[in-house]
Design goal:
elongated, 2 domains, two-stranded antiparallel ribbon, 7 helices, homodimer, DNA-binding, mainly alpha, Arc Repressor Mutant, subunit A
DNA sequence: AAATTATATATCATAAAGATATATATCAAG
DNA sequence: CTTGATATATATCTTTATGATATATAATTT
């Protein structure tokens, strides 16, 4: 995985949403962006350091009683500019989304049909649960950020999640039928 | 990315489809599985070595005139068993599919609506092209492997690609409309 | 009172992506 | 007919990402 480095831009973006610590960014990612992105601490902390070095954000150490200092990050002018530049940069590659279910299905002639049907049913359940989660996030956004200019765009991404997941569920049903 | 190692199973699977060299596997992946998986030489060759060490495949060196030897791999009984075991193992995680378009959209209040619309239009074009590619692959499968037991499953995965891509295109249209 | 969860930063090992190196044969274009 | 591009084939390198774990304490739950 050479070259990409979307992490940097993800973090610059998160800095515009009120997140000020690495921990908050991870939380935000896992609650509100988890339908299309993820990030690990192993990326967050080194990238934050790098971002400060590049002058795209500033840090302030806030000592805590006993606990490790909170490092509060704030986006600079340069950081905002960098974010905007990335936003308007053209989409290059669009890599395929790897899908373990399809990888297994591709080789499924090597197992009984029943087993294949079973795991498609299981997959469908997972997707259904995911759909519910998305509805939960939707409420969260609508409650917490009615005033935010972000809300419209956040809801667009959720819409994507909902529509695509619904399509996946339909495909599951189709395929189970064809196998039965 | 600790833990997963789907690469090993992808390769075991490819060995059941007539692929005998690393090069052929890469080709197969890039033509017939590229709508849901990808693999690099940096994964293929070390994994092939490992698979042989584990007794899941055998190698035979076929000397070429001047060119590097062809290493022909064949699945063993143990390899087939390992593949079947993986096929029937439960789906655990199902990681999110990371989507750069959505990441940008999430932060798009920081740019003019026109720019956002532009890249959604561009994305839609990419998806449309992808849909055509899938139809091409479909033909390829139908021509080359009418007799193969694999064909049915391969077409299921393509169906997935087609249905999900169609849903994505619809979402693009929707979202462009909402922004206009 | 004990156990778990939340807050907070940081690093490590493993896996994957993408690029590049090496070498030659074949095919197409000028 | 020769130059350039593409196809065949293996292999390795660096960068990036993932998931796990380490550390330390407060707050909350059992």
């Amino acid at each position: 995985m050479a070259k990409t480095n979307h992490t940097k831009y993800a973090i610059l973006g998160l800095l515009t949403t009120g997140c000020r610590t690495g921990y908050q960014m991870k939380q935000m990612m896992d609650t509100s962006l988890n339908h299309f992105w993820k990030i690990s601490y192993g990326q967050i902390y080194p990238t934050l350091k790098q971002i400060v070095e590049e002058g795209l954000a500033t840090v302030q150490d806030i000592p805590q009683d006993g606990k490790p200092d909170i490092k509060e990050y704030l986006l600079t002018e340069a950081g905002e500019k960098e974010l905007r530049q990335w936003l308007s940069s053209p989409l290059e590659n669009i890599p395929v989304a790897k899908n373990e279910v399809l990888l297994k299905l591709f080789f499924s002639r090597h197992q009984p049909k029943e087993t294949t049907i079973e795991y498609l049913v299981h997959y469908q359940e997972i997707l259904q649960a995911r759909l519910h989660t998305y509805e939960g996030i939707e409420e969260l956004i609508q409650i917490h950020s009615i005033e935010k200019a972000d809300a419209q765009y956040w809801l667009f991404t959720l819409d994507y999640g909902k529509q695509i997941t619904a399509a996946e569920i339909m495909w599951c049903k189709d395929t189970i039928n064809k196998l039965s």
